[in-house]
Write a structure and sequence with these properties.
Aspartate Aminotransferase, domain 1; globular; 13 helices; alpha/beta; 392 residues; 7-stranded mixed beta sheet; 2 domains; Aspartate Aminotransferase, domain 2; 13 strands
Length: 392
């Protein structure tokens, strides 16, 4: 793998030089007066990215999985029922985490390539007249299949029947790259990770907590220590924080807000659409079953019968020094994934498309070299309005 080539995996993402340098600091006393302003700036910026003015933010030394565990253990009690859909690898992992904590998970099965099954959720919520369901889990962006679900629609179904359950959202591969409105959508717990839209190394679990979730925390909760919100909200880190990553996070949110969140989301959509145009030109299809579900951070591409997507990923790494995402779980070998989130520009995307095209041809897929690149070029040329601020 060449360190000079950008990666096209859906996380960890490419790290801008300014953020890498922000993480590269001498040892700092995290109890000193110097660290406090950096920590507060990082949290304040994350609140803006999450779209919350009423919620709190905690930053754990962990990854998104740690954020899931923190959300669950701080607000739910042993035996509580949660409602979740299984429609991809990461929705499955969150279900597994809940089951390991002794929660009663009401699982609704959906095909991989589909989003959250709204009608089934609505029926389950309406039938739960005694409000046994204490939390509804939503994977906003299913990274394994390149599917984005409508969080606001889930909230609307909950409100339609007056259901008081907490709404927990996995936004690990969406927050910082796609529109996310914690307050407007009534999200009670929002989970993100540093290694995706925030363009940092892995190592921070970022959790947004609504006032309603804070009240649930006070009412009970599963056993927890390292992930206890109460310790994290005390004003001082309860243990040694990852100071370099938090310095990088402060730089990251400054970069995102400097570009403007609307511009960040538009850039991601535009780059993703160029990738999708390339996929269509190759005669292939996304795993997501309809355009309304297409993700703007990762595209999972269905391989022709008899062609192993994971073998293609290995070949691209060996032959061209470029990383793409392998298929996971039920779609292992059936898809390969192009990540296009975080630090990404037209030029970078075109390099990934060109490399994927060569790898497809090498694997015997009948693609015309240059077809996908040309389709993406045409789209990028005709939709370019202003230079990407992130490239400046």
């Amino acid at each position: 793998m060449s360190a000079q080539n950008p990666v096209f995996i859906p996380g960890p993402t490419n790290i801008p030089e300014a953020i890498r340098k922000a993480c590269d600091i001498p040892t700092m006393d995290h109890r000193s007066a110097a660290f406090g302003p950096i920590f507060e700036a990082a949290k304040a910026g994350v609140k803006k990215v999450l779209g919350t003015t009423s919620g709190e933010v905690v930053l754990f030394p962990a990854t998104g999985t740690g954020g899931w565990e923190a959300a669950v253990t701080n607000t739910l009690s042993p035996g509580d029922r949660v409602l979740a859909a299984r429609h991809g690898m990461f929705s499955q992992k969150w279900i597994d985490l809940c089951q390991r904590h002794g929660l009663d998970v009401q699982v609704i099965e959906a095909p991989w390539g589909e989003g959250v099954p709204l009608e089934a959720f609505a029926a389950a919520l309406a039938a739960d007249t005694d409000h046994a369901i204490k939390a509804v889990l939503v994977t906003h962006n299913e990274t394994a299949t390149g599917v984005t679900s409508d969080v606001s629609a889930v909230r609307a179904e909950m409100d339609a029947v007056g259901h008081p359950a907490l709404l927990m959202v996995d936004g690990v591969s969406s927050i910082g790259s796609m529109d996310f409105r914690m307050d407007d959508w009534g999200v009670d717990l929002a989970v993100a990770g540093s290694q995706k839209g925030f363009m940092l190394p892995a190592g921070l679990a970022i959790v947004g907590i609504s006032p309603k979730a804070l009240a649930a925390m006070d009412a009970g909760g599963l056993p927890r220590c390292f992930f206890d919100f109460r310790d994290m909200l005390g004003g001082i880190y309860p243990y040694t924080p990852p100071v370099g990553l938090i310095c990088g996070l402060a730089a990251s949110v400054e970069m995102l807000l400097g570009e403007g969140l609307t511009a960040v989301y538009a850039r991601h959509h535009r780059i993703a659409e160029g990738v999708r145009r390339a996929v269509d030109a190759w005669g292939l299809s996304p795993c997501a079953v309809s355009p309304a579900l297409y993700s703007d951070t990762v595209t999972a591409i269905v391989m022709p019968e008899g062609v192993d997507g994971n073998a293609l990923v290995r070949h691209a790494a060996d032959a061209y020094g470029v990383a793409f995402g392998a298929g996971l779980g039920a779609v292992a070998g059936k898809v390969f994934r192009i990540g296009h989130l975080g630090s990404m520009t037209d030029v970078m995307a075109l390099a990934g498309i060109a490399t994927a095209e060569m790898a497809l041809a090498d694997m015997g897929v009948p693609v015309a070299l240059g077809s996908g690149v040309a389709a993406a070029q045409e789209y990028y040329r005709n939709t370019r309005s202003v230079p990407d601020a992130a490239a400046a």
